[in-house]
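Handout, page 2. Input:
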Amino acid sequence: MALTAPPPAPSAKIAELASFGDPLPFAHLIALALQAFENQAGANVRFEDLDYGVITSWLAVALKLDPMGQYPLLLAAHVYAQVPDPGRQRAMLEFVRTGAAQDLSRRWHWLAHASLMARHRLKDPRLALALASDLASAPAAILMPGWARQMAVFLHEDLGEREAARRLLGGLLASGMVSDASEFRFLAQRLEALQSDEYSASTSVVQRRGEVHR
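Output:
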């Protein structure tokens, strides 16, 4: 009889022992076995029917066994996060966030993907901003394209938080991490526009207060 759900995951230590000193094939086997649960002989298991706590624990074990691998994060972001269930989607994005933080220099793009999913699929700009902020605050030694660090700036703008966007963008420009001249010029112009908007807004507030007291 076909199994209809994965059993509870072992601890990473037990999984390492079970791999007999060769964890990479065992990690790949875990990933393949997880995928097999959705398409089994005699059973059609939907992602919505799976225990995502169990799924997450298996993905975490696979990632632990193969720290250089990316496949567990790919499964989380592109397979299990596609289920039409916000709670399960959030669980997968949180797994991606945790996994990316363990090796941001090689996994930053999964965090960027998670932020985009939160913004456009979950329609949750706050979660998207939290994920993008992890990229914005990453040390300069972690190499990633400028757009990844800049995502948080534009998400702050989307939320109407122009002061926060201005501070973040100003800090990014001052950090020296923007080395491309045309990109620096574009961002400097964006910063100037934000500063101008803030000045106009503050001026309008002062004028309105003056009118009230006349």
